[in-house]
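Design request, tokens follow.
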């Protein structure tokens, strides 16, 4: 093996590292940060006090990370579990103290045939393991969105309503 790249990712130890799609790397460090890297460039990151304001950052930190390509799963030293969108780090799921103590590892259930049974109709499933000797399954409900045809219909209705209101307010507008 040959070293191809070296850079300072965190102040202090790195708790966990995960490889993501498009040669991205996710790291969780003892400096209370979780970072997404492309080569040696920081793509985006989470700082504990920005992600969960009101909770002192010296008592908590990210402990475990996994990137499924679409989602980033995180476990903390307090036993909390979260799922974020991988490219924007928007939080979609959070369970405070899902475990009694440190989450040591998280893993996404594969979207293969056997994994479909665990997923059911959910968008993703994350397994978490902790020092409390428990393994828990976290299911991310499928996000609801409007169909494109409905969105276009609503926009057309808005345009017609605006024209009618302008016609009422200013007779002879058209």
């Amino acid at each position: 093996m040959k070293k191809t790249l070296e850079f300072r990712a965190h102040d202090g130890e790195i708790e966990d590292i995960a490889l993501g799609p498009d040669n991205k790397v996710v790291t969780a460090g003892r400096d209370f940060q979780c970072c997404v890297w492309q080569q040696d460039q920081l793509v985006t990151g989470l700082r504990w006090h920005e992600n969960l304001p009101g909770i002192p950052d010296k008592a908590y930190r990210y402990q475990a990370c996994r990137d499924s390509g679409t989602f980033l799963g995180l476990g903390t030293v307090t036993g909390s579990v979260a799922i974020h969108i991988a490219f924007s780090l928007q939080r979609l799921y959070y369970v405070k103290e899902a475990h009694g103590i440190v989450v040591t590892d998280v893993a996404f259930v594969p979207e293969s045939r056997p994994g479909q049974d665990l997923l059911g109709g959910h968008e993703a499933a994350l397994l978490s393991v902790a020092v409390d000797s428990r393994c828990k399954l976290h299911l991310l409900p499928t996000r609801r969105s409007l169909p494109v045809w409905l969105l276009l219909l609503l926009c057309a209705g808005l345009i017609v309503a605006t024209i009618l209101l302008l016609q009422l307010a200013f007779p002879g507008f058209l």
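Comment from the thread starter after seeing the answer: thanks! The first helix runs from residue 48 to 51.
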